[in-house]
Write a structure and sequence with these properties.
The complex is a heterodimer of chains A (334) and B (231).
Chain A: H1 22-26, H2 29-61, H3 68-86, H4 90-117, H5 124-146, E1 160-162, E2 165-169, E3 172-176, E4 182-184, H6 185-207, H7 209-219, H8 221-226, H9 231-253, H10 265-278, H11 283-303, H12 306-323
Antiparallel strand pairs in A: 1-4, 2-3
Helix pairs in contact in A: 2-6, 2-9, 2-10, 2-11, 3-4, 3-5, 3-9, 3-10, 4-9, 6-7, 10-11, 10-12, 11-12
Chain B: E1 2-11, E2 14-24, E3 29-33, H1 40-47, E4 53-60, E5 63-64, H2 73-76, E6 78-81, H3 93-104, H4 108-117, H5 119-122, H6 134-146, E7 152-156, H7 164-179, E8 183-187, H8 191-194, E9 200-205, E10 208-214, H9 215-220, H10 223-229
Parallel strand pairs in B: 3-8, 3-9, 6-7, 7-8
Antiparallel strand pairs in B: 1-2, 1-4, 4-5, 9-10
Classes of the chains: A mainly alpha (334), B alpha/beta (231).
Chain lengths: 334, 231
Amino acid sequence: MTGASSWAGWSSCRNEPFLHDRGAALMEFGPHLTLALIEGAVTAAVLALTASGLSLVFGVMRVVNIAHGAFFMLGAVLAWWIAQAIGGHPAWGFGAALIAAPLMVGALAAAADAAVLRRLAHDPERTIVATIGLLYIIEQVTLMTYGPEARPVVAPFNARIALPWIERGAEGWQVIWPWGFGTTTYKLAVIGAAMAMVAGLWLFLARTRAGLVLRATQADREMATAFGIPVAKVYALTFGLGAGLAALAAVLIVPIRQAHYLMGGDPLLLSFVVVIIGGLGSLPGTLLAAVLIGLSDGIISVFFSPTLAKIVATLMVALVLVFRPQGLFGSRPA
Amino acid sequence: MLRLDEVQAGYGRVAVLHGVSLVLEAGEILCLMGRNGAGKTTLLRAIMGLVPVGAGAITLGGARLDRLPAHGMAAAGLGYVPQGRRLFAGLSVAENLEIGLMAGGGDDALRDEVLGLFPRLAARLGQRAETLSGGEQQMLALARALCLRPRVLLLDEPTEGLQPSMIAAIREVVAAKRAQGVAVLLVEQRLDAVLPVADRVAFIETGRMGPVMEAGALRADRSVADRYLGV
């Protein structure tokens, strides 16, 4: 893995050097913690979206999609291409990418399901090997066409927001504005957008007929077939939806990070961490674990080191695997 | 109505059914009986398209079923209640029924009609299917199939492990559907459970059809049943 794709590179706080040097010296604990929480929330929000796709695909299809990170990467790369093609104000290019990139990635994933996974009868073991092949193909085609460079997508808006803090001084409680204590409108928008999209996903699954069909297929594929559900089409839709969610997360994060052909490794790994802790196939578990991992990553990275944050995440996975192998919200196999 | 001609079917290279032929008429309850492993469940699964048919033909009202995809059987008019119920466990009672209604193009009126047959389910619409009692789960499995408005009901041991009151309730519903012209292919293990409701009884042994008898004749002489079912 290159530096651009190293695990430590995914957390958005690494783009904020003041947190680790000047900010740490100037700010008190409270503001420092608040900043860490904001950075962690950005990571958690994007991770929740990415991991939801992975969890959905496993839950409905029982396919462990190793290519999920490649679909994430493809979303970011397509966002760059679309933004370049549109030109003009960054908002136009970003807006177009936000719609088109997930649709394109979703369509590609659905086609890959029909062309490859369906021929393997969605066998859990053989599809692991097949998705490793997909990952390799997508990465190499991207390298050949997009190149090895990391390229930025300009955020549609990115105003700096200074945050106030309340402190007790000689004249009692007063509002102060610590230097470096702030965030950007874009980061707050990423958190809000990811939350809205995850809520939308939940509503889709819980309140729509299409969501009911997905849940019935997840519960019993054969009975779903007996009750008129075209399972092959449902699988293609699910695989496309899962990849589309990863691409959506990538488009949101690409103005903070840069698009690179190897950037999918970290989201894939962290998504697996999240779904293992939350329980494979459980959306509530996935969301809770994403918040847990995202916030702990933000806080530990800011106060200690990103390496320690990864050690803690790994320990959490190990503890879950030992004491509750089905995950926090997963059900035990019958 | 439902006709099987020389049907061969199995799992992979293992053939389970060897040239099975059977005719089921509208408004009839035909019970299929045989020892464990005789091929009863495989026969129902073959009709539903869940087991590939290697040779022969399955028709419903003259239309070939064995050429349809498995997910087309519900729309063609087949309602299936599998062995072990196999409800959509994480879904509520209402959602399980909704799946049936969606497949059969049913509406709220049909839903109310089906719930009228099973008042216990009407009181548990929001409850997850997996939390129902065994009898209630069986009622839901049958109700879900009835939401398809089926022309043929395939029931695989629907009374297995149920208490007598539940068995009576399910029998009553099946008999009511027969009276409305629905054809019922019923798989059962126990002759006592079959004779009160069946019009005819067909025996199957190691994937080959045995005799098909009128239920009345079987009541008078159980020797054939003893031969095919053992003691």
